Amino acid sequence: MSPSQFNRNEEYEEETLTIVDELGRSLPCYIEQSLEIDDMTYLLLFPVDIPVVIMSINSDSDEELEAALLDDDEAIAEIFDNAKAVLAEQNLALHHTAYTLTAIGELPPIEEEQILTLEDDGDMEEEELQSLAYFYHDEQKYGIYTPLTPLLFFARYDSQNHLELVSPDQENLMPILEELLSED
């Protein structure tokens, strides 16, 4: 699915791997865990830089906040320069990397009032995000957040040494993912 390259870079203390999306954008990741099963190497990857998301914000009052994840590449491209400028004011550099936006720099300390909790109507757990900045574009309010839980990618190398991102649901891979997660 996704080509990649092994990188051994002096700035990273651990072994890293760069995943590349269909548009040629790259995302350097640490190799958190690896597991060999039946001539395949399964990997749990964690981005080197800080994953961030941009959400459009609507609020009827100070207490009621409605946030929607911005995941359309065209919509992100339209507001990207504004988001980049706002984060630069906090000494964070925003990048449009593969599979997620990332920021480079030091995050501010987490304060309780800066945490946004996303509730899902389905079976998924709540997700907590740290607010980094807000800005307006064409009279629409946007927020930039980083997830408080790590963003992990599940991948595997096949016998020809090709890397692909895989879903745990694909080919009943959930037990392998659970084993990689339990090795921490």
Pick out its properties:
2 helices, mainly beta, 184 residues, 13 strands
Task: Please render the helix and strand layout as text.
Elements: E1 4-7, E2 16-20, E3 26-37, E4 40-47, E5 50-59, E6 65-69, H1 73-88, E7 93-96, E8 101-104, E9 115-118, E10 127-137, E11 140-147, E12 153-157, E13 163-165, H2 174-182
In brief:
By secondary structure, the chain is mainly beta. It has two domains: 78 residues, no CATH class; 98 residues, no CATH class. 14% of the residues lie in helices and 45% in strands.
Textual characterization of the structure:
- It contains two helices and 13 strands.
- It has two domains: 4-48 and 150-182, no CATH class; 50-147, no CATH class.
- The chain starts with a strand and ends with a helix.
- Strand 10 and strand 11 form a beta hairpin.
- It is mainly beta and 184 residues long.
- The model is unreliable at 1-12 (pLDDT under 50).
